[in-house]
Amino acid sequence: MKRRHDEDLQTPITAMIDIVFQLIIYFVVTSSVDKDIVDESIRLAEASHAPAVETSDPRTVIININAKGRVNVALQPINNMQQLENLLLSMKVQSGSSVPVLIRCDGSTRFDHVDQVMQRAAKVGLYRVRIAAMVDE
């Protein structure tokens, strides 16, 4: 009976390195997708009595309103409320009337700007509207 020598066995490390790099690229690309729809310049208001919502629907339309009342969706500026209404209507047609809407507004945003966005969502027929806030610590 012939025995193999232990010195001939080697582990192919090149294939493992290729797979690790592919996984790193995948996670970097997919993690940056959510950052593209959130306006980081908005400082959310603090809410001390509201429960935190952990789950999110991937169909959620995130509408950002800055302190001056300027509206953007996925960092694309919305010039007038009719444009926002058309966008919400297309989302409703595409995904149904249960599409959630999340309004992220600055803590110093006047409520009439938020109310205009809420009225447009209601006019289109989207009623799952939430307003984002930071938890008071």
Residue windows where pLDDT falls under 50 for at least 5 positions? none
- Helix percentage range: 25-40%
User: What does the radius of gyration come to?
Assistant: 24 Å
Order of helices and strands: HEEEEHEHEE
Q: How many helices in DSSP terms? A: 3
User: Which structural class is indicated by helix and strand composition?
Assistant: alpha/beta
- Terminal CA distance reads 73 Å
Question: How many domain modules?
Answer: 1
Number of strands: 7
Strand order of the largest sheet: 4-3-2-5-6
Beta-strand residue fraction = 15-25%
Approximate shape: elongated
What integer is the average pLDDT?
Answer: 81
The major beta sheet can be summarized as: 5 strands, mixed
Outline the structure in words:
With 137 residues, the protein is α/β, with parallel strands linked by helices. It has one domain (1-137). The strands form two sheets. A five-stranded mixed β-sheet has the order 4-3-2-5-6, with helices on one face. The protein has a two-stranded parallel sheet with strand order 1-7. The chain has helices at residues 13-35, 81-95, 111-124, and strands spanning 46-47, 61-65, 71-73, 76-78, 101-105, 129-132, 134-135.
Name the descriptors.
38% helix, elongated, 137 residues, alpha/beta
SSE inventory with pairings:
Blueprint: H1 13-35, E1 46-47, E2 61-65, E3 71-73, E4 76-78, H2 81-95, E5 101-105, H3 111-124, E6 129-132, E7 134-135
Parallel strand pairs: 1-7, 2-5, 5-6
Antiparallel strand pairs: 2-3, 3-4
Helix pairs in contact: 2-3
